[in-house]
Design goal:
The complex is a heterodimer of chains A (168) and B (139). Chain A is an all-alpha fold. Chain A has eight helices and no strands. In chain A, helix 2 crosses helix 3 and helix 6 packs across helix 8. The longest helix of chain B is centred in the N-terminal third of the chain and has 18 residues. Chain B is elongated. Chain B has nine helices and no strands. In chain B, 57% of the residues lie in helices and 0% in strands. The chains are: A mainly alpha (168), B mainly alpha (139). The complex binds zinc ion.
């Protein structure tokens, strides 16, 4: 438990959680630029918020900040179309240069899963990403999204059912 | 018969109360439909979990660039020590954290520990402190 704000610095948060925050945004949007912007915004908010942080659930606190930063960002600008996946494949050279069939197959599979995720309504996509990408418990997700735990459970379940339909 | 519905997802995530766990186990014994649904949910869950964790660009974190500890310098610092100890230090120099703490193979097999040797502020001690501080490993 964090007893006082001085127990932890924003650099610590960046080192330990930066990658998860980035992946949260990346899987919600399919867009690396959005993910990049979000990490910076969240770390800024963590830096501002740490002095007034009160011991409690650090994960709940951090992911509530992350989610609010993400939603503010979505509200602030019209979301760019999520065309990031093909670009990204080009950049890594995996499409242009010959690759083993299994590698290509697993990339396509990942692409299909990402596309199916992007098809889900926001609340369901968010719950599934927090559970299966970030790895939070239902309790932590409930704190992050400020919803009852029963709602979280239902969103994760329905999100998975929708994914299953889309993935065939 | 009332089917299990969202209890199935919670079951996969280990998020059931003991009473719910019993009910799910009993029901699955006798209900094909719920067993099929469980399989489908497990596949959807596994699909999302199979997405690779993308590496975050260092610039996005605003942290100092990773510092690689040069072998020669490390050797000279330890030059006054017994020859045997110095020889060992050369071997381990590449896996020393910048604060001089040796990184064990266990640390390196751990995604947090693996970054230790590259990041000056990311020592094993620090990782442990952050983990404890954030309650990540608190039960
Ligand atoms: Zn049933």
């Amino acid at each position: 438990m964090v007893e006082t704000a001085s127990d932890i610095s924003w650099e610590d948060v960046a080192r330990v959680y930066g990658r998860k925050i980035y992946n949260f945004a990346y899987r919600l949007t399919g867009n690396p630029d959005d993910a990049h912007d979000l990490v910076q915004e969240v770390l800024l908010r963590v830096r501002r918020g740490l002095p007034t942080y009160r011991p409690g659930s650090f994960e709940g606190w951090l992911w509530r900040i992350t989610r609010n930063a993400f939603l503010d960002d979505v509200r602030r600008r019209k979301r760019r179309p999520t065309t990031a996946l093909p670009d990204e494949l080009d950049r890594t050279g995996l499409v242009s240069s010959p690759a083993p069939d299994e590698v290509l197959a697993s990339i396509r599979l990942g692409e299909d899963i990402q596309k199916a995720l992007l098809d889900l309504p926001y609340d369901f996509r968010e719950a599934v990403v927090l559970c299966d990408v970030v790895g939070l418990s239902y309790e932590e997700i409930a704190q992050a999204v400020e919803a009852p735990i029963g709602t979280v459970r239902s969103r994760i379940h329905r999100g998975r059912r929708m994914l299953r339909e889309r993935l065939g | 018969m009332i089917h299990l519905g969202e209890l199935l997802s919670a079951h996969l995530d280990g998020e059931l109360s003991p009473a719910e766990r019993d009910r799910v186990a009993e029901h699955l014994e006798e209900c094909d439909r719920c067993r099929d649904e469980l399989e489908e949910l497990a596949a959807a869950r596994a699909a999302v979990r199979s997405l690779p964790l993308v590496e975050v660009p260092a610039a996005a974190l605003g942290l100092p660039e990773p510092v690689v500890v040069p072998l020669t310098r490390r050797k000279s610092v330890w030059a006054g020590m017994a020859a045997a100890a110095a020889a060992i230090s050369i071997v381990v120099a590449s896996v020393l954290a910048p604060d001089g703490t040796a990184v064990t193979p266990q640390d390196l097999s751990d995604p947090f520990g693996a970054r230790v040797s590259l990041d000056p502020g990311f020592t094993p001690t620090k990782v442990a402190q952050v983990r404890v501080a954030t309650g990540e490993f608190a039960e």
